[in-house]
Specification:
Length: 124
């Protein structure tokens, strides 16, 4: 667990129903939500409204089939600002093969996106 606590990526773990059970310090710094704020909540606290219901349906359909989901998400911080992240969400299985938890690992790519926009769409 020490490695996850020190990871540069945001990590949180939910139970099968999506209730947050654990967040690492990077999650706290990135989102502005403290552990106390986040634990017991649903990841919907990060929902930005930038992805539609179909986006989330496809994500959950993949996860409940026991397959990891990878993609880019736009999330909302506690202060209302947005951040973009490359995310991997994976199901965690017990010995019988039943999904017990999900682990989400997100890398903030907001700065890279902004730099790309400046490079490819220079201001005139």
């Amino acid at each position: 667990m020490v490695a996850i606590e020190q990871a540069a990526e945001s990590v949180f773990i939910t139970d099968r129903n999506g209730t947050i059970q654990y967040v690492n310090p990077t999650f706290e710094r990135l989102t502005g939500y403290s552990r106390k704020d986040a634990i017991g909540q649903n990841p919907r606290i990060l929902k930005s409204g930038k992805q539609d219901a179909f986006f989330y349906k496809r994500m959950w359909d993949t996860l409940i089939r026991g397959i990891s989901w990878k993609g880019r998400v736009i999330n909302r911080k506690k202060d209302g600002s947005f951040f973009e992240a490359d995310a991997t969400i994976s199901p965690i299985f017990d010995k019988s093969g039943k999904i017990t938890n999900f682990v989400s690992i997100k890398r903030d790519v907001t700065r890279e996106i902004e730099l790309e926009k400046r490079l490819f769409c220079p201001v005139k």
